[in-house]
Amino acid sequence: MDVVSIRSSNRPRASCITVFAHLFGLLAIILLLIWLLNYRGGIDYDSDNGFLVFNVHPLMMFLGFIFLAGEAMMAYHTVPGERKTQKSVHMILHLIAIILGIVGLCAVFKFHDMGNIADVYSLHSWIGIGTFCLFCLQWLFGFFTFFASNSMDSTRRMIAPWHISGGRALLYMAICTALTGLIEKYQFLGLRAYQGESYLVNFLGLSILLFGIFVDLSVGLAHYV
Predict the structure, then answer these.
(1) In this predicted structure, what is the pLDDT of residue 3?
(2) 203: closest CA among 35, 22, 17, 42?
(3) Which among 74, 63, 69, 73 has a CA at the least distance from the CA of 16?
(4) Whether 87 contacts 147, CB under 8 Å
């Protein structure tokens, strides 16, 4: 069986795995909204309450750098269609992710200014800033290499594995950022074991992690990396 046949046989399996990715992605969104709206008071970038401003941060960062980034990866590798259309959807979803990320970063810096809190001092913030910068570079590199230029096919084939592997690594970096952020917030709030909010935060973290795992599995099977 040649490589093309293997990829063809793996694509239906990858499409099935995307169902689980979507389920855990939607579950994470639901749990995140329940947490922010029911337990943390709401979401309002223009509020005088710094904590409501802060709540914009986890929502935007998850929707952008985890959920939409994962959907963009699956849209390109597991959804049948014309290559140009796949590239366009892939690029646009990642661009929206960057825009949401900018809003999320502005929200957390605004919260820090309102509360006279130091910026970029924790492991969570270090990983997060690094992920954001690399994500933007990855998008620019991919845009000019695969979409906006007339690069030779041989050059694209040589660069593609690095681009794909880099995207998968960035997804896990974003998930790592989210999980360290949840732990940091958990400790900051002084949550106790066995209370409802504690369980909610834990299940939210698990949902985010499982979303990333199933996205990575679907992309790996579809491309046979």
Answers:
(1) 38
(2) 35
(3) 74
(4) yes
Looking at residue 84, what DSSP letter applies? H
The CA distance from 95 to 100, in Å, is 9
Treating both helix axes as pointing N-terminal to C-terminal, what angle do 153-189 and 196-223 enclose, rounded to 10 degrees? 170
Q: Is 168:216 a contact under the CB 8 Å cutoff?
A: yes
Residue numbers in the chain where pLDDT is lower than 70: 1-14, 149, 151-152, 223-225
Q: Per the structure block, which two tokens stand in for 25? A: 């992605």
List the one residue out of 117, 57, 106, 70 whose CA is nearest residue 218.
Answer: 70
How much is the pTM? Answer: 0.90
* Alpha helices (H) along 35-68: 50-54, 56-61
CA dist 173 and 171 (Å) reads: 5
Identify which of 74, 100, 87 has the alpha carbon closest to the alpha carbon of residue 171: 74
* DSSP state string for 176-190: HHHHHHHHHHHHHHT
List, in order, residues 6 or more apart from 95 with CB less than 8 Å away: 139
Contacts of 28 (CB under 8 A, 6+ apart): 62, 66, 67, 204, 207, 208, 211
Cα 204-209-211 angle, rounded to 5 deg: 95
